[in-house]
Structures are given as structure tokens and as C-alpha cells.
Amino acid sequence: MLQGKAQLSTLVGETHRFEFHSNYWLNLHHFLQLETLLRESADSSLLSPALFDQLTVEEVQQIDSAISYYQQHLSKEDLRASPYQRTFRQWIITQVGEALETPPDSLASHVPILTSLSAFYKKYLWPAHKASIRRVLQANASFINQYEDTLASQLELLTHSYWQGEKIRVDICYYAKSTSWNLRNRPYTSLYPTHIVMNTAGEQEELKGNWLELLFHEASHHLIGTRTGFVAGTIQDVCRVKQEIIPRGLWHAYLFYFSGKVVQEALHHEGVEDYPLYMQRNGVFRRYIPLLDLHLPTYISGEKTLAEVTIDIVNGLE
Asked: With a threshold of 0.70, does the pTM exceed it?
């Protein structure tokens, strides 16, 4: 048997288009990020009173010290887009062992914080978090394997873009992206290369299919850009000709709708009836939803071009 780091891996599942990872250190980072935001914004904690009663004085001090560091240096950093967080994430996903090795100079003060809290996290939280990650992946693996090629092809057709050739890396974490104004866990994606962070916390309360829809939503970010690509370009062209300001986030609303609709149809084939799209259930782009429901199906069915339905949608917003 091979020994050492070469044998270690965070890989917990793989399909034709995705590779799924469960990274201990990235999970610890997301726990600290959310715990910091809860203490700052809601005077609350992820840790129950019963758990606090079990902690030693030293463990409480270690937690408080880590939270203090995150408050001072990281709580305002965007997990998805800030240069620091991107550097951190690109490095931390390479860490597969019990020790953190060769960090970039910019992370020198951050690494000891994670190391100091590792024993606490491993003892009290990681077993349940790791089990949740494996449980959610296992519950959704069959669907992903069966439908990923079909869904990718449908999304390529709708966006006039190509699904990337390399497998998309998905790091599954118990907690994911939260902000001080929205403390809900949400998955997020960074591009170049495409890297998705999915969460599992709260999955028992979510509607069947929710995790799958969000996975393919996040994966669609490399097909629909903010200002580039067929979808964003069509919206820009329509608004330029009409001399209208581009509706804020309309490209993202299209992304929600397209990815939601193709997953909804696949879930229907699996016997999941009347699955409501994530954006409908959560009021995402609430102002746009009636117009999207009215016009985008005619593009999806091939009856109209995207430019034609975008004109109708922009006219409806006037």
C-alpha cells in the first residue's frame, strides 16, 4: 500500500461532469465565518448551550480568539469574490492532510487560527458535518449520474454556450456562503476555473430537488456571464436598441429560470410533481418572475428567439 500524502484525498464522489470533495479545512473555515456573522449580526451562535457546557476553559478561549480574528480580518470579505478569499480557497482545497502545509505569505496569520481550533472542530462538529455531506451526496448521486448529460445539453442549447470539458470541482461543506444581511447558507461559485461550494446544513427542511437545482444553477454560471456571452449579450443588445437601462440582474434571473426549469422537468420524470423553482419559492428577483413565467417558456420551447422574449420582458418592466 502506498503511504503518505499521495494516498490522501478529499474526493468523495465523481461523475462524468463533476468531482465532489469534502475538505475538512474548508468546512472549518465556513463554520468560523458563519459563527462570526451570527455573533456580530444576531447575537446568536451555531453552538448550543448544551455544547458550551461541555467545553473546557481553554476550548472557549480558543473559539473566542478565532472569532475575534475573523471579526477583525475576514467577516467583511466576500467568500466568493474577494481576492483574499479566492487565494485562500484555491490554496485550502489542496490541503488533504491533518496539517496545513506551504501556505502563501498572505495567509500566514490565518493558518494558525485554523490550526488552533482544529481539535475542537474535529471533536464536536466535524463527525456530524462529514456525515451530512456524505448523506446528501449519496441521496443525489443517482439523479446526477442519470441526468447530468441531458441537463448540460439543454443548458448549452438555451445559453448558446459550451459546457466546460474539465470536470467541475464541487466542494461540499456543511455551511457555505452567508453575509451579515442574509445569514442563510447558500452555495456559491467562482470562475476561471469553475469552483462550486455547496452546503448541506438545513437539507432536511428543504424541498426534494432543491439541492439538485442549486447544483445545476451554480454550474450554469460558466454558461451565462454578467456581461459576456449570448444571454447577457442579447439583453444588452435589446436594451441598447430600445435605449433602456439594462434591468439589474436580469441575466441572473434568466440563469435561475433556465437551470430551474430543466431540473424541474428532470424531477418530473423522477416522479417529483409540481416542483416549484427556487426563485419562486424564495422570491428571488420577485419583480421579474411574472414576466419570466409569461415569456421565457416560449423561448425554451423554441417558439420565439431570446431577443424576442427579452423585448417582451423589457417592455413589461416599463
From this structure: yes
Beta strand 188-190 pairing with 195-199: antiparallel
| Strand 18-21 versus strand 11-14 pairing type | antiparallel
* Whole-angstrom distance, CA of residue 291 vs CA of residue 69: 46
Burial class (CB in 10 A: 0-12, 13-18, 19+), 1: exposed
Q: How far is CA 153 from CA 55, 221, 273, 300, 301, in A?
A: 51, 15, 23, 13, 15
C-alpha cell at 36: 462570526
Counting every residue, how long is the chain?
A: 318
Q: Which residues pair with 20 in a beta bridge?
A: 13, 170
Cα 299 from Cα 308, distance rounded (Å): 8
Tell me the C-alpha distance between 288 and 284, whole Å.
9
Crossing angle of helices 57-73/111-124, nearest 10°? 130
204 burial (CB, 10 Å; 0-12 / 13-18 / 19+) is exposed
DSSP line for 127-161: HHHHHHHHHHHHHHHHHHHHHHHHHHHHHHHHHT-
Closest CA relative to residue 296, chosen from 268, 246, 262, 249 = 262
Task: Tell me the C-alpha to C-alpha distance, in Å, between residue 46 and each of 63, 122, 176.
Answer: 12, 15, 13
Q: Write out pLDDT tens, residues 36-56.
A: 999 998 889 999 999 999 999
pLDDT tens, 215-236? 999 999 999 999 889 999 999 9
Q: Between the CA atoms of 104, 109, 113 and 115, what dihedral angle is there, to the nearest 10 degrees?
A: 40
User: Measured between alpha carbons, how far is 176 from 34 in angstroms, rounded to an integer?
Assistant: 8
Strands of the 195-199 sheet, one edge to the other: 11-14, 18-21, 168-173, 195-199, 188-190
Is-contact 242 223, C-beta < 8 A? no
Nearest Cα residue to 220 out of 174, 275, 157, 171: 157
